[in-house]
Design brief:
Length: about 325
């Protein structure tokens, strides 16, 4: 049995933006970056305009939004000599921001289309993928963090969108990330089969590797063993780390693992969570990948190309 590794970074883990914590409190430098800055706009569904070539994020000149960053502007960092920002374009008119309805009548750039991160993440270049992922993560957090967890008062955005401050007790909060494990379980001793499962809410025929959220006081390895035992009743060994990918839907960090298991174990499905689980041959996974690439139907539907689950399966089949 030869251990496999990820053959490339997960697509949403690619990033070239320079993140500087000190910059988030340097108002003077922020104003400088705003003057020739670039803005990623996100509509209420988390979509942004993508250029027709599919490699460059269609962006707006920052000064379109005023001579200085509005309160809703989120500083993503510096990349390519420019400051990069994100602005959600679902402002309320009475907050003095840009109304989404008025934004819709602004002409689009030639050839652009509005896509979300799940759809566009697989064909964006590294810098754009990293910027878009960070923009989605920050805006998702702010949508769910409008009130103080300590006293319930409204909060204000501070540090260029990388923190909030309570208007009541003054407490500062920072973006939340929820760790989740995702594990490719292969058989032993040959590693020629992979354990795939499907949730009841997924489209018919769609399968993936197993995943679950880390509980309080739990190690990552313990979570891997627990989640797989709970979801399919299988005991795993040889747990090892592969890599990670942000998954801001709304605020997860997917931590990829591999593990082995005895395929003779009885599969016991977790009621309401797993509809079906099966061992699938490596050759069958390769056929499914080839069929998808050719635009053909196959009984085995695999995770989307933006996900770390897809990268794990592609790496395993190529090992």
């Amino acid at each position: 049995m030869r251990p496999f590794e990820l053959d490339a970074l997960p697509l949403l883990s690619r990033s070239t933006v320079v993140r500087e914590e000190n910059l988030r409190e340097d108002v003077e430098r922020q104003l400088e970056l705003w003057q020739d800055g670039r803005v990623i706009v996100l509509d209420p569904d988390g979509r942004t305009p993508i250029g027709e070539q599919g490699t460059l994020l269609a962006h707006r000149d920052a000064k379109t939004f005023g001579s200085e960053p509005p309160p809703e502007a989120l500083l993503l960092g510096e990349d390519g000599g420019h400051g990069w920002w994100a602005i959600p374009v679902d402002y309320e008119v009475d907050r003095g921001g840009l109304d989404w309805r008025s934004w819709q009548v602004i002409p689009s750039l030639e050839g652009e289309q509005w896509l979300d991160l799940r759809m566009a993440g697989s064909f964006l270049e590294a810098s754009c993928a990293g910027l878009f992922t960070t923009a989605v993560a920050l805006t998702s957090w702010h949508k769910r963090a409008r009130f103080c967890a300590n006293c319930g008062s409204p909060v204000l955005r501070v540090k260029a969108g990388w923190a909030t401050q309570c208007t009541g007790c003054g407490r500062e909060e920072y973006p939340r990330t929820d760790p989740a494990v995702i594990c490719l379980v292969h058989d032993r001793p040959t590693a020629s089969r992979v354990l795939l499962a499907r949730q009841p809410i997924w489209p018919k025929g769609r399968y993936s590797v197993l995943a679950g959220f880390v509980e309080a006081g739990e190690s990552l390895e313990a979570c891997v063993a627990r989640e797989i035992a709970e979801e399919v009743g299988v005991t795993v060994d040889d747990i090892r780390y592969l890599g990670s990918q942000p998954w801001p839907f709304p605020r997860s960090l997917m931590l990829g693992f591999a593990a082995s298991a005895d395929p003779e174990q009885q599969i016991r499905l977790q009621d309401g969570e797993i509809e079906e689980a099966r061992w699938v041959d490596r050759a069958e996974v390769k056929i499914a990948l080839a069929a998808e690439a050719a635009g053909e139907d196959h009984w085995l539907g695999l995770p989307g190309p933006t996900s770390i689950a897809r990268r794990m399966l592609e790496s395993w089949t190529a090992a």
